[in-house]
Write a structure and sequence with these properties.
By secondary structure, this protein is α/β, with parallel strands linked by helices. The chain has 17 helices and ten strands. Strands 3-4-5-6-7-8-9-10 form an eight-stranded parallel beta barrel, surrounded by six helices. Strands 1-2 form a two-stranded antiparallel ribbon. The longest helix has 25 residues.
Amino acid sequence: LSYLKKIDNMGGALCAIDGSSGNVFVGEVPTIKPKIPMEWPILLSWAQKTKRLGVRANADTPDDAKRARKYGAEGIGLCRTERMFNAADRQGIFVDMIMARDVNQRKEVLKKLLPLLKDDFVQILKAMEGYKVTIRLFDPPLHEFLPSSKNKKVLARAKELEEVNPMMGHRGVRLGITYPEIYEMQIRAVFEATAKLVKKKIDAKPQIMIPQVGSIEELNHIKSIYDNVKSDIEKKYRTKFKINFGTMLEVVRACLTSDELAKTAEFFSFGTNDLTQAVFSFSREDAESKFLEEYKKKEILEISPFQSIDENGVGNLMDIAVSRGRKIKSDLEIGICGEHGGDPDSIRFCHSADISYVSASPFRIPVAIVAAAQAAINKK
């Protein structure tokens, strides 16, 4: 802790992070640019022809989307819309929305955000033309977006929004139900962006995904908002738009009742990070900082379940969800979008579990493609 405090007090100091090990080095260290072997493009093309699993990217910005496509991604499996509110030109607007005391005030503030999000979606969808882009609606608790402040009004609002266990609290679909104007604005921005691209004859393929769903009643509640917006936009442009509506499977109850959810959802995507937390009943942050290393030393766990999918627990639950969901819709598209999407062992499991695609960070796309091909070869 004293070392972390020392680093914290070195504001502005240069540091380097090893992306493989996670080690942090304070000060300047020697670096080299990675060299891509001449044979790599050929190997990658073989892997793309051999694999069964689709490989998509987790991408939240137009630059991420372009980078992912360059590395071979076949679409975006997770676009986290809350990241869009962190930009300098909109962070203050979103804070104003949180501070608003009634729904009408919130709607007025959200009107300012709609065109900004629309522009983001236009650029991301354009970068991934011809491929599906799965857009997850707002997920984290609102209090995370309030700035550190001594302002009495901000402090009072932060106190109102404070939660004992935010990971399992007022977030995701629960937020969308209690603050429907947020989801309504985001859905409208997706439709408006799609309309703009369709007019330019650009093949945009957005999908809207709802986080933290635990029941069909929750999903249907948001679907009614989606249907109303869809109707408005189609009347406005006198055009029909095909934007799939689906859900994440990251709540245990959702996995066990996937047959019910499949009646409304047009696709599923496992949020394996949160699902792992739910199955093990510990948070990733606490586990990694407090006891996971000790568990590995004492051979209680061979590897972190946040690194590779725990096949006996989380994997078993995924198998149940896939089986029950596809009994309702045999061609149901089911992906994963946690960090496991770039892990070779997890990719092997996903291949055997008949998952449709994995989604990984842009820089892990080539690794995921090769791992998917290896999984296909080993299964033969």
